[in-house]
Amino acid sequence: MSWFAAPSGRNGAATPLGSLRNQLLRWLILPLVALVALNAVSVYRDALETADIAYDRSLLSSTRALAERVSVRDGKVVANVPYVALDSFETDTLGRIYYKVTGLHGETVSGYGDLPAVPAREPRSDLYPALVRFYHADYNGEPVRIAALLQPVYDDTMRGIALIQVGETLDARRALSRRILVNTLLRQALLVLAVATLVWFAVRLVLRPLMRLKNEFETRPLSDLSNIDQALVHREVRPLVAAMNGTMARMQALVASQRRFIADASHQLRTPLAVLKTQAEIALREDDPAAMRAIVRSIAGTTDSAIHLANRLLTLARIEHGGGSTPAGPVALAAVAAQVGLELAVPAVQKGIDLALEAEEGADTTVHGQELLLHELVANLVDNAIRYTPAGGSVLLRVARREAGVLLEVADSGPGIPAGERDKVLMPFYRAQATLEANPGGTGLGLAIVRDIAGLHGATLALGSGEGGRGLKVSVVFEADPGH
């Protein structure tokens, strides 16, 4: 699933995405807050480590000061630690101090004898040029930090290593840690607030062109389908504006097509309706039954012409607006041609016209398209050929497989269309002079319908002369169905 696709609800409809400004702020501020929090933790840990190093150095100084008061006297290790020295230690460290001096044989020389011993696996500190180890322990129910220093002692009679331990409570360290934490969080919070404010103003500034675009659309008249100036928005939004311009151009074409259809339909239907009204008025004044029947037959003929015109107008309108809702699929064009031939065999026989179908046996004439529209295309070509071919003529319907695709060809022995008018007859309601003489009641829509259906299917339409230069030959070449 795409990260940028709108989520779908239970009924398949897209869920509204909400405010773009709010989404930008969330995607910018929330990750920033997370990064600042991680940075605050890192800074806090580094500060604590630095504070520990500083306090350990102070603790080591106290241990060294105490070690300077350890000596050997009369073969014994002694420690001269006055209370004044201990008070100075506590004043320097701002915490409670405990100490212990251990002799060469593990005996307690001075201090707190129950001070926790050095853990067996505690490594020596590499930060200082001294044999010192730092470790945490609990003493009298309080956590303490202890420095254990190995101090060489000697005189003329003996030599050895004494152990000096100085521990302090963690009150000062904890107070410093709290100050570091509060200061760090305060600075980071101020940083996040400042960045959030800047981001909010930046997002408002960046989205301002979109707001102007929205306002322009809201204030436009409904009839204004002109293009939007792409310079009004950022480069990243211009493809969207270009797509909107394309949509409005298609809407302009659709509106123009609808207006043209309404104008053409009203113009073309006005004549047969006026004729029907005139015939009806004449029939109302006629008393002779024979004359009345003749008028009624004339009304029936005019009605048939009006129905034929209305059907072709509706077909043309349906094609111009997307070809209807019939799904496209593989269509056997030879079968469609055979069906049309059977349907129009009666009017061909009535005029004494030889209607023939030629289809290559075994040839694959399958095309991809809408069967109803293809049927309409073939029917219009054959119907036109029958209408404009004089009695005793011939109409040939041919379906064949060619290298370029599937060929549909309708040739007749009628008056034909001069080469200079073949492009014009493809326009709605245009009729060549020769066709006017052969069929004055025509609509001029048949070839226009064929043109639109062929264009909808990506087919190539060509008009030419029939056999021996007589009549009209219409050729339509379809791309063969790739699935066959």
Automatic annotation (TrEMBL):
The keyword Ubl conjugation does not apply. It comes from the Bacteria. GO terms for molecular function: phosphorelay sensor kinase activity. Its EC number is 2.7.13.3. Keywords: Kinase, Membrane, Phosphoprotein, Transferase, Transmembrane, Transmembrane helix. One of its GO terms (cellular component) is plasma membrane. It is found in: Membrane. It catalyses: ATP + protein L-histidine = ADP + protein N-phospho-L-histidine. It is an enzyme of class 2 (transferase). Residues 264-482 form the Histidine kinase domain. InterPro entries: 2CSK_N, HATPase_C_sf, HATPase_dom, His_kinase_dom, HisK_dim/P_dom, HisK_dim/P_sf, Sig_transdc_His_kin-like_C, TCS_sensor_his_kinase. Gene3D superfamilies: 1.10.287.130, Histidine kinase-like ATPase, C-terminal domain. This is histidine kinase.
